[in-house]
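User:
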Amino acid sequence: MKAVYIRKYGAFEPLKTEEVANPALTDDTVLVHIRAAAVNYSNVAIVTGKPFIAR
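Assistant: Predicted structure:
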């Protein structure tokens, strides 16, 4: 499965996807397939560390 990781605070560089193993499922869990996700200002503020309260 593919995942997008942000590894550190700082410049908002182009996002990169990585292949990761599917999580182990148990009887009381589900795996949800996500086709698209939005990135908005609060996501950018958290990555860049501005404002501090966003962290």
